[in-house]
Amino acid sequence: MPFALEARDLVKRYPGVLAVDGVSFGVPDGVCFGLLGPNGAGKTTTVEIIEGVTPATSGEVLYRGEPAGSRFREETGIQFQATALQDYITVRETLDMFRKLYDRRADLDAVIDACSLGDLLDRDNRKLSGGQRQRLFLAVALVNRPRIVFLDEPTTGLDPQARRNFWDLVKRIRKEGTTIILTTHYMDEAQVLCDEIAIMDHGRIIAQGTPDELLRSRYPGLIIEVPQKDVIDDLAALEHRVLDEAGVVEIVASDVSKALADLGPAVRTLNHIKIRQPTLEDLFLDLTGHSLRP
Ligand SMILES: Nc1ncnc2c1ncn2[C@@H]1O[C@H](COP(=O)(O)OP(=O)(O)OP(=O)(O)O)[C@@H](O)[C@H]1O
Ligand SMILES: [Mg+2]
Fold it and tell me: Judging by beta carbons within 10 Å of its beta carbon (0-12, 13-18, 19+), is residue 27 exposed, middle or buried?
């Protein structure tokens, strides 16, 4: 079966900037696919090429095995990273306006319900909070009953509760079979929502797979954290990295007992160590040298 969506060797060159440098990936139907990467990695440019908003310098986008065309546009919902809402109209009028742009239309009540907008329908767009605006943007992306939805950093700026509520919305539309392309800076978001992720840096994909696959292939075991101030000797025998800002040394340990035995003589005390599971944040840091959050 062809992918729901396939990007083939996408390149975008701006004067003096190679924003996207040969990106290829396929997204199976019904999957939530995450694009992660530091600021300027090329995520938004990549998704905007796929959406047809930005022309590629070269490369090809296929929708269900065919060059992406009018069917793709009709069946796609887009939540842009930065969007303006029209002033002086209400939430209901906004949804109506966007819905009329499509032949394919969702049941508006279902969208309103899914995005918890029932109490806000008569409110002027200007008076929405950040989280309410994000919910409206998502609703706008759903008004044509899309089979594929693009969400570009949908939860940036939301408080922790609003982010979790938004995740529930995304999970719900994913469960209904909608394919989702999500860009995010939040590793917990990627871990919770994405079936598969691609990490981008400098316009290229540098790692791709399910979150578990990626973590297992890079980290065969656990991570031991030691306060930097407790380290009194050379740790060269152990695979480690120093996080100066946090004042912590992290050791990747496939065999924790052995690592602790090796570590013992090199530290003042083992009393302050922490042993934890590796996360996408670790992977991101290792691969890009950047923290996941900007
Ligand atoms: N219209 C443009 N003209 C010139 N350069 C651009 C343009 N749009 C993006 N770029 C450059 O392309 C690169 C990739 O930008 P892009 O917006 O795709 O990054 P991103 O991964 O989405 O970053 P962020 O996490 O900050 O949203 C950056 O260096 C950016 O400055
Ligand atoms: Mg972006």
Answer: buried
**Protein residue whose Cα sits closest to atom 11 of ligand 1:** 19
- Distance set, CA 73 to CA 53, 62, 247 (Å): 11, 12, 50
pLDDT at 80 over 80: no
Tens digit of each residue's pLDDT (9 = 90 or more) over 199-236: 999 999 999 999 999 998 888 889 999 999 999 988 88
If you count them, how many residues does the chain have? 294
What pTM was computed for the model? 0.87
- Token pair recorded at residue 115: 């995005």
Spacing, Cα 129 to ligand 2 middle (Å): 22
CA of 45 to the centre of ligand 1 (A): 6
Ligand 1 atom at shortest distance from the alpha carbon of 44: 22
Reference 118, options 143, 106, 135, 101; nearest CA is 135
CB of 49 within 6 A of ligand 1: the answer is no
The separation between the first and the last C-alpha atoms of the chain, rounded to the nearest angstrom, is 38
Tell me: pLDDT of 294 over 60: no
pLDDT band, residue 290 (cuts 50/70/90): low
What's the longest Cα–Cα distance across the chain?
71
Domains delineated in the chain: 5-215 (3.40.50.300), 221-277 (no CATH)
164 and 188 in contact (C-beta within 8 Å)? no
